[in-house]
Amino acid sequence: MNIVKRVSLKNFRCHGEFDLNCDESTTLIIGENGSGKTSILEAIYLALRGKSFKGTDKDILKRDVDYYRAEIDLVDAKKIIIRFDGTKKEFEIDGKKSSRLSKSDRYPVVLFEPNDIYLIGSSPSRRRDYFDELFKQINENYGVILGKYNKALKQRNDLLKEEIVNKDDLFSWNVMCANYGTELIRQRINNLEKINEKLTDTYRNIAKNEDICTIKYLGTKVDENEYLQNLEKNYDKDRILGYTTFGVHRDDYEFMFNNKKADGSASRGENRSMILALKFIEAQILEREVGKKPVVLLDDIFSELDEVRQKHLIDNFKDYQMVITSTAVPSEMRVDKKL
Predict the structure, then answer these.
(1) How much helix, strand and coil, in percent to the nearest 5, is found in the chain?
(2) pTM, to two decimals
C-alpha cells in the first residue's frame, strides 16, 4: 500500500528545509493556512506525475532564491529527485537524468482539493479541466491527443486574428482540429460511461437512499466530417470574433440528480456526496486501468465535510496510501507532522 516513504524539500514554496517520513497508510499534516501544507502535496504530485497542480517552477521557488530541490523516496527503493535552477527543471531517478518524467516512472494520483467540492456548480472550463486531468491519467494517449488538439487550435486562432486570411489558409488546421477533436470526443464518452456505471451505487452507499446520479456529456457529438463542416460553416463568425467558436474546447459535463440538473435541484449535502462518490470511483478506475494503486492526496478537505462524510472518505480510501493536510485534527487520527 505504501508508495511514498519520505519527502525532503529545499527552497520549495515557503519551505527552506523540510523533511517528512510518510506513514505506511495515512499521513496527517496539521498546520494553519499559509503554513505550506499544500506545498508538500504539490511536491508529491510533481514527483509522481511530472508536473505541478498549482503553478510554474518559478512560482514554486522560495522568494529570493534561485533554485529548488525536491527529493521523494518511494517504497520500491526508487528515489526521485527534482531540481530547478531558475531556468530548467531536471528529474533524476536512480542516477538517470531527464527533463521529463517518463510514462513508466509515473504513478496515478487522486488529488482532492476543497474547490472540487464545488465542481457541480462551477464553470464549464473548471469541469473540463477536471475531467481532462482524470482522463490523462486513465490513458496517456488522451493527454497526447489533447496536446495536439490545443496546438492546432492555437494555430487556427492565431490565423483568425491576422488582418489578411481566407478559408483556405485554415484548411489544414481545420482538418487537424476535426481529427484530434473527434478522438477526444470518443475517449471522453468512453471514460464517462465507466464512471456512470458505478456512480449511482457508490452514491447510494454514502447517502443510504435510492437517488439516481449520472454525469452527462454536453459535448460536440459529431463525426470527423461533420466536425470539419462546422468549422468551415463558422468561418465568418470566427473571423469577426478572432477565435474558434465550435469544438471540444467548449464542451461541458452536467451532473444529473434524479434525472434533473443537480445544480439547482440537489441539496448541498447531496452535491457533496456525489463528489465523494466521483472521487472513490476515480481511485478504482485508475487502479484498474493503470495497474497501480493511486496515492490519495487530500488537501484540507475535512473543513468542507461533516463527520459522516469524513468517515466515508477515510473508509473508502483505506486501501490506498493517503497524505492528508488539515488545520485541525480529525477525530481518531494521529498527527504525523505539525507545521
Answers:
(1) 50, 20, 30
(2) 0.93
